[in-house]
Structure formats: structure tokens, C-alpha cells
Amino acid sequence: MEKSKRLFLKQPMMRKVIYSLIPITLGAVYFxxxxxxxxxxxxxxxxxxxxxxxxxxxxxxxxxxxIVTSMLFTLTLPVxxxxxxxxxxxxxxxxxxxxxxxxxxxxxxNPALVGRTFLYVCFPEYLTARWNLVASGFPGxxxxxxTPAMDSITKATPLAALNQNADIFSIHQLFLGGVSGSSGETxxxxxxxxxxxxxxxxxxxxxxxxxxxxxxxxxxxxxQLLNVPGVANPTYALFSGGFIFLSIFxxxxxxxxxxxxxxxxxxxxxxxxxxxxxxxxxxFVGGAAFAVLIMNTxxxxxxxxxxxxxxxxxxxxxxxxx
Length: 322
Description:
- The chain has about 325 residues and is mainly alpha-helical.
- The protein folds into two domains: about 10-150, no CATH class; about 160-320, no CATH class.
- The protein contains 14 helices and two strands.
- It has helices at about 10-30, 35-55, 65-75, 85-95, 110-120, 125-130, 160-165, 170-175, 190-200, 205-225, 235-240, 245-250, 260-280, 290-320; strands at about 10, 60-65.
- The longest helix is centred in the C-terminal third of the chain and has 34 residues, at about 290-320.
- It is globular, with a radius of gyration of 20 Å.
- The chain starts with 7 loop residues before the first strand and ends with a helix.
- This is Na+-transporting NADH:ubiquinone oxidoreductase subunit B.
């Protein structure tokens, strides 16, 4: 077999996702300091190395997708996450959610989301109880390595407030990014700009973006109308905890998402609804990641079920013409 001379496999679609993440990354640096970029660099190098060690024996190049995975993973972490914790998370995600399935294109679960969920369950303190102040004005976080840590975490983030059923932040703050949280999930404005770019360049499917948001708002509104205890304001809840970020970048991930239009809507709607259910009735206030991973499991059977029903419908139509 001829030895491959390429170090990286060129993937134009992945390149566009990287471009869409640049404003969000710069925003994260502005809000929390240069440590965001340092952490992302370390995570990306470790993600690339992990994939290289697996692909080297198969004489395959590293995919640009692992860079996207590393960037997304880093942006879901608080800026103060210890390097060793972040490294453990990206290695776990790439290894057990991608390489053990056979590499790029064969994974059932999103590697970045698996790595993040692994840390959320095993090292919750670093992801839920250590937050940093948000910089403001000019030059913001560009003038510091990392913004100061918060003394109190009781009301540090929108999700913390959501868990207490208190709307202590304005929608304006949540939309622009004036609240603490994971480095890349604080500004809905920057995330929506990335979404427009991804849809315009046909890199991501708008149906997969819209459906989880519709499912989330619909169930939240219904539960609020029914006066169910613990249900937050739907608009406030929508912009809290990175759900928009997840809908734009994780639900739309082409490998793990459904391929049929009908399944896309079912998939997204259920992700939104499951997120609301976990946040309202479960112990994990950050239930969006669990919702996506749960639905990832059913993607193959959903696609096959839709294809089967369409095939039966065509067969019945053909029989009626005979």
C-alpha cells in the first residue's frame, strides 16, 4: 500500500465550521481573557495527537474534523478549567466517541459532546462551580490572561439562576453576552451570526437548527401554562446554559444527525423537549447535552423507519394503480 503523504485530510465543510467559530472564539477572549485561546490550543494539540496515534497504524491522515471537535469542546468549558481536566475530556471524547467506532464518518455520538459530558459527570465542580467575571468595555479580556474568579457562585450564571427559578439576568445581557458561563456559550448574538453563515454556506441544515428550539419553547410554554413547579420563563430558559450553541453546532453535526427530512424534525423537536424535561424534573440542570446523546442513539432506526414507511407508501400507491 502506498504510504499517505498527507498529514491532514482536507474537509471544506469542516473548514467553514472553523470559520464560523472564529468570532465566537474572539468573543470568548474578550469576555474572559487570553486563557481561552491558550486552553483551546492545548486541547486542539491533544485532540490531534489522539487521532494521529489511532490513524497512523491505518496509514490515514488526520481529519480537519478533529480541529472542529477540539474548538467546540473548549468553547463549552469555563475559562478556568484546569488543563489536565480539559486534556482528559478531549482525549476521552476523540478516543471513545470517534476512534473506537472506526474514525471519522462512523461515530454514533458527537466526540466533543461526549468529552464534555464525561467531564460534567466525573468532574462537575470544574464545570458547574468555578466561574469567572465577564469583562466589559475596551479592551475587555484582551488586556488580561484571565478575568478574576467569582467569590460567590450562588447567582453566577443563568443556569444557576434557572435552577433557583429566578430570572436575575435581563434578556439583553443573555443575548449580548454580559453574563458568566462557559467561554463560548455566553453570547447568543455571536452564535446566531455563526448560524446565519452556516446556513448561507449550506454547511448546516436549518431544519436541525430550528426544530430543537421549537420543541424547547413549545414544551416550556405548555408547562408554564399548566403552572408546573420549577418551569422557568421560556425565553429566559432558551438563552440560558448554552442551548442555542448546542442547537447550532451539535444538533446539526452531519455524521450523528438524521438524513431524512421527517427524521430531522422529530430528532430536533425531541431534543428540545427532552432538554426541558431534564431541566425541570431531573437533577442535571444542564440537560441539553444528555438530550442530544440520547437522541443520537435513535438516529439510525429513525432514518430506516422513515425510509421504510415511504417505501410502503409508494408500494401501496403502485398497487392501487394496477
